[in-house]
Amino acid sequence: MKPLEGKLFGMTLTQPYDVAVIGGGPAGVAAAVAAARAGARTVLIEPTPYLGGAGTGSMVGPWMTNFYKDTQVIRGVFQEIVDLLVEYEGSTGTIKCPYKDPNSTWGTGGHITPFDVEILKFVLNKIVTEAGVDLRLNTRVDQVETESGLVKSIGTVTKSSKQLIKASVFIDCTGDGDIAVMAGARYEYGRQKDGAVQPVTSIFKMSYVDTDSLIEYTRQHEDELVWVTYPILPPNLPSYFSDSMVAFSGFNNLVLRGRQQGELNLGRERVTLFSDYRKGDVLFNATRLNEIDGTDNRDLIRAELELRDQAISLAQFARKYFPGFSKASISGLASKVGVRETRRIVGDYILNENDVLKGRSFADGIAKGCFPIDIHNPRDMTNQWTELEGAYDIPYRCLLPLGLDNVLVAGRNISATHEALASSRVQSHCMAIGQAAGVAAALSVRQKIATREVNVSELQRILRSQKAIVAGDA
Asked: In 3D, which of 284, 283, 211, 204 has the Cα closest to residue 245?
């Protein structure tokens, strides 16, 4: 639907929306779709030419678990996207990752969902436009107008125009909390003891890998690996899909020797690999750079340059030393650095480490989390991986920035501690949170109430009708 337009102070003024979602990553897509389906006139604003955020621009895949052990705890819009990917041969669907130690899910959370980046872009366009969302790609927000705890409008800029967009409710899915902060919200940054954030990474893909040789090597040399799992593929996959997969992290001694001899430039002590659902393709989640502020463009430029150097260095090293890689080459490199952590908006409740580890329940739980706490150390090359005692609830209060009455946050900028965010930041969880934010925003508009006055029981009921899983569900 084309908005009605008029001129105001040299800017184009669009007809007011019910809900404006800023950021078209996993959380933003789910939020916009859910809001539109709940009857709200919705606009989705994204600065790049494509949707998907971390999953597309940063190539962060496969998606980490939406299961706690063998119980699915994230469904809703996330599951719809997975089903569409399968329909268009862009995924195997979610698959289980078994481990020798039944108490371990190190590196995956126990299930993964591999996907094709380009097919994901198509699927996200499809689900957003079919929901009736007004999609604004290549559009940046450069100003926020606030009055008495309410955001009144946002200013947007494209290559060809400047527009003022008004809405009743704004959902900040920028990842960095940009809109909430511009509106005056409080935020925390980094871990409590020193303010340091998790490092950034650039994912890359290599093709023409002899994955059969790689898999056989891992079976014969598990002593070289920190963890390894062989995902269980479903039957009746297309003929060009893989018939076996492996995910592992290790080769520590080889990496150490390469770094010491000046043959390898890598900011991590080991490599993490996921063979893809297409035979011969392997994803590397192995580059790393600490002390990068993902809200500072100078730091992001430095990260882009350094991490591409690391990726090329590692690809050359892999061709020389990794089993099955002698004829492999880079076939994809993230166009945008993957940022794990920046600002965390302070909300009515701050999700903490104990809530996550103990699988705590909340009466206002509007989504569930199940990924273990995975902290990439901000000061060195190590990782801290901690399994959970159960799936946990994410309270609606974590979406409500203090001092703002018509703004919701969704994604990795919700109200959480550094440690809790190390679980809730993964894309499956961001989609679940985004879906809840979208429905809450639509309810706020429909009932003409502040976002924190939304009846959570009604919110949960609507989410269940959208096949989402909330507090009290299995």
From this structure: 211
CA 293 centroid distance within chain: 18
Nearest to 429 by CA among 67, 93, 178: 67
Tokens representing 134 are 């007004």
pLDDT digits (tens, 9 = 90+) for 180-214: 999 999 999 999 999 999 999 999 999 999 999 99
Angstrom distance (rounded) from CA 364 to CA 388: 21
User: Nearest to residue 306, comparing CAs of 292, 321, 320, 325?
Assistant: 292
pTM greater than 0.85: yes
What confidence tens digit (pLDDT) does each residue in 433-470 have? 999 999 999 999 999 999 999 999 999 999 999 999 99
Angle, CA 361 vertex, CA 360 and CA 362 arms, to 5°: 125
Instruction: Tell me which amino acid residue 113 is.
Output: T
